Amino acid sequence: MFDRRLLTHIDSPLLLLLLVTAALGILNLYSSTSNWNLAGTAVYIRQAYWLGLGFGLALLVSLVDYRHLYHAAPFAYLAVVGLLAFVLLFGKTSMGATRWIDLGPFHLQPSEIMKPVMVMMLARYFSRQENPFGHSLRDLLLPGALLALPLLLIMKQPDLGTALLLLFIGSTMILFAGVRRATLAGLAGLAVAAAGGGWFLLHDYQKQRILTFLNPDRDPLGAGYHIIQSKIAVGSGGFWGKGFMQGTQSQLSFLPERHTDFAFSVFAEEWGLIGCLVLLGLYLLIVVRGILIARKAGSPFGMYLAIGITAMLFWHISVNLAMVIGLLPVVGVPLPLFSYGGTCMVTTMIGVGLLNNVAMRRFMF
Amino acid sequence: MPLNAPAPDDACRKRRFELLLFAAALLFVLLALRLWYLQIISGDRYDLLARKNRTRSIPIAAPRGTLYDRNGAILVDSRPAFNVSVLRQEVEDLDALLTSLAQRLDLPVEQLQQTWQSRRFYPRYRPIPLAEDIDRTLVEELAENALQLPGLIIEVQPTREYPHGELAAQLFGHIGAISEKELRTLTDQGYRGGDQIGKSGLERHLEAYLRGQEGERLIEVDVQGRELRQRTQRPAQPGNQVILTLDLNLQRRAEQAFGDQAGAAVALDVRTGEILAMVSRPAYDPALFARGIGQKAWQQLLDDPDHPLQNRAISGQYPPGSTFKIVTALAALHEGVTRPDELIQCDGRLRIGERDFRCWKRTGHGPTNLMKALRESCDVWFYDISLRLGIDRIAKMARHLGLDQSYGLPLDNERSGLIPDRDWKRGRFGSSWYPGETAIAGIGQGYVLATPLQLAVMTATVANGGTFYQPQLLRQVRDHQGRILLQEQPRVRHQVRFTGQHLQAVRQALAAVVGDPRGTGKACRLPGIAVAGKTGTAQVVRLKDDLPGHKKLADDEIAYRLRDHALFVAYAPAEDAEIAVAVIVEHGQHGSSAAAPIAREILAEYFGIADPQPDSTAGQEE
Question: Could you tell me if the ipTM is greater than 0.90?
Answer without folding.
Answer: yes
